[in-house]
Design goal:
Radius of gyration: 17 Å
CATH superfamily: Phosphoenolpyruvate-binding domains
Number of domains: 1
Strand order of the largest sheet: 2-3-4-5-6
Number of strands: 8
CATH class: Alpha Beta
CATH architecture: Alpha-Beta Barrel
Distance between the termini: 51 Å
Number of helices: 10
């Protein structure tokens, strides 16, 4: 079993050049299965893990997620990236404290989102979102942990599919210390190409979407990594539902 430091170093190397797929298991068993299939790194899925607890996305508590991250990180030999939602806090100080707890679980990377939780869907004020990213960066660097920081702009998922504003936010997160930029949502080739160009040389993560670009097309655009979000968990649950319903009798 590689050490945590070795996993984090390997994760950084994956981001330096080339292209890799980062599938999202939802529990220890699915993580181990993906490892056996030969993937180079894995990431958590907030929605997929929430389903294992009978909850909806964003319904998992911080402590439940931390336990989940700790269990999966300890079980696999691969770098593991945490979907850390919005850092489980609004103010930068709270984000920093929670990032410290996430680092201690053994993850090799973690993402911080900029969406508003509760009320009307939207994005946090940019200055606040940047301060949160900077606080996460400072905490990661406090003891040279080597955790990869991913800055996520949620605009396309909250009804604000504005390419210019998305790029401006991603550039600001890069300036605040994000190692990798992640705008879940865009499917258009020209938009993705513009995002990759704008934040270069920092790597970009794109969410694989139905009716979206293929892995080959994303690789050719210069995308560095592709994740699946909750898709694998949803596929598994749909198959489970279909098989279970065949057992129902009147």
């Amino acid at each position: 079993m590689p050490t945590t430091a070795e996993k984090r170093a390997a994760f950084h190397r994956l981001h330096e050049d080339g292209f890799f797929v980062l599938p999202n298991p939802w529990d220890v068993g699915s993580a181990l299965h993906l490892q056996r299939l030969g993937f180079k790194a894995l990431a958590s899925t907030s929605s997929g893990f929430a389903m294992t607890l009978g909850k909806g996305d964003y319904g998992v508590t911080r402590d439940q997620l931390l336990e989940h991250l700790r269990d999966v990180s300890a079980a696999i030999d691969l770098p593991y990236n945490a979907d850390f939602e919005g850092g489980y806090a609004v103010e930068p100080e709270g984000v920093a404290a929670n990032v410290r707890l996430a680092i201690e679980t053994g993850v090799a990377g973690l993402s911080i989102e900029d969406r508003v939780l509760g009320g009307e869907p939207g994005l946090l004020d940019l200055d606040l979102a940047v301060a949160r990213m900077r606080a996460a960066r400072t905490e990661i660097d406090r003891d040279n942990s080597g955790v990869v920081l991913v800055g996520r702009c949620e605009g396309y998922l909250v009804g604000q599919a504005d390419l210019g504003k998305t790029i401006a936010r991603l550039e600001a997160y890069a300036d605040a210390g994000a190692d990798c930029l992640y705008p879940p949502g865009p499917r258009d080739k020209d938009e993705i190409a513009a995002i990759v160009k704008a934040v270069a040389p920092r790597p970009v993560n794109i969410l694989l979407r139905p009716q979206g670009l293929s892995l080959g097309e994303l690789r050719d655009l210069g995308v560095r990594r592709v994740s699946t979000g909750g898709a694998l968990a949803f596929v598994a649950h749909r198959a489970f539902d279909a098989a279970a319903k065949e057992l129902l009798v009147d």
